[in-house]
Amino acid sequence: MIRSARPTAIRRSRPALFALAGVAVLAVGATSGIANTAAAPAAKADTLVWSQDFDGAAGSAPDSSVWNLETGGGGWGNNELQNYTDSRANSQLDGNGNLVITARQEGDGSYTSARLTTAGKYQPQYGRVEARIQIPRGQGIWPAFWMLGGDIGSNPWPGSGEIDIMENVGYEPHRVHGTIHGPGYSGAAGPTSTYQHPQGWSFADDFHTFAVDWSPGRIAWSVDGNVYSERTTADTNGNPWVFDKPFFIILNVAVGGNWPGNPDGSTQFPQSMKVDYVRVYSS
Question: Would you identify the CATH topology of the domain 16-282?
Fold first, then answer.
């Protein structure tokens, strides 16, 4: 891997309000360090315990027994521009084994997209949680693969916890971010790290595998099998570690917002995130 010549970067503040079953969830950014590119390979967790491979007919909906399609707009607390829908125009299988989440600019200038969660349907605890994804591109485009604590309905964020497995903002096409948020270390205090493409290329050019290896008191992030960050109970500065419980999985593409900024004249629509699979392996 090529070690970045840049010093530690400061990640933009990104308030983001996520609505889930009527519960408001605030998430913001944090200081970010570029990954040491002499990254170690991830330890292999061999036993597959859950998988979504998206093998279905072109134009069909994601499996509703697994995926919830959250809907709505209003900025999501982050001045985001998209309205999430359950339309096949925004989420569908492509017939080639991929889930496609598409952000569109509609005829009236508004934006639509999709946000899928496994809340209440599949909520893993520990193991490797990974997805093979080709992210979209462009200024103002914000794809994410992440998790929230399954107890969020009774334990408001940040007490419920958040694990961001992969986030990208379009003005940094060659970087992805991994973060945790919890009580006393959310917002700008959320421990976060950044992984830079070893050749400096855009992550939107191809599929990549984004993962966390998650065990009691420890979470490690990897891209294409290369570990670039590890967080443990020592990283919460004496605050509660809230990740030893079930979490649910989220896939979404946002448009605009305080962190990525809004689309501009260089942004082309539609923009699609392709997900080849989401898998969970036992540790």
Answer: Jelly Rolls (2.60.120)
